[in-house]
Amino acid sequence: GYPGVSGPKGDLGPKGMKGDPGVVGERGLPGQGTTGATGPKGDQGDMGMTGMPGPCSPTVQSTFSAALLTSFPQPSRPVPFKRVIYNLNLHYNPDNGVYTAPVNGTYVFSYHLQVSTRMLKVGLFHNFEAVVRTTTPVEMNTASQQVVLSLSQGDWVWVQVKDITTNGMYTGSEASSTFSGFLLYPDRCDDMFGRDYTEKSFPDQDIPFGGP
Length: 212
Prior knowledge:
Blueprint: E1 63-67, E2 83-88, E3 92-93, E4 98-100, E5 105-115, E6 120-126, E7 129-136, E8 141-151, E9 156-161, E10 169-170, E11 178-186
Antiparallel strand pairs: 1-2, 1-11, 3-4, 4-9, 5-8, 5-10, 5-11, 6-7, 6-9
Region (Disordered): 1-44
Organism: Sinocyclocheilus rhinocerous
């Protein structure tokens, strides 16, 4: 037979239950935008605090090196190394062999002496006191020392032989005996400025060597 007439639309059914959330997808790649224009220059910042002062500039310099001209110099006196090799600012006196410190500071001194004919007993003196001594008992040998000293302005430093029987200090055409020293640095920066240097006269007297 013929199809029947369509029936009326039914009522809406009840709402179903909420389903579980789906899995989070992977993070996408970052975008690549173009570089923006340079911004305007900012205002100048405030001035910072003053830093610590730097090291002293070497406005006072002192260094010397001198060689012996005559073998077997007089003992109990400063040895005059009369052949001046270098004497910046003339703080070393080649006539009497005495160096005078121009400022308070740290200094370095050395001697390198040839020995011949007899043994040598020699010392480095600071203001009439032997700081170091060297004894060289073998002929045609050398005597050497190097020391660092703290000196005050006007202090004296020299090399001295003990006595006649232990005076083998020698110089010749093929051998030199030398005395050298220099200012390493002053004690304070203000020692470098406004200081008048005046050399004192060294006394004319014999000086005990001391020790054995």
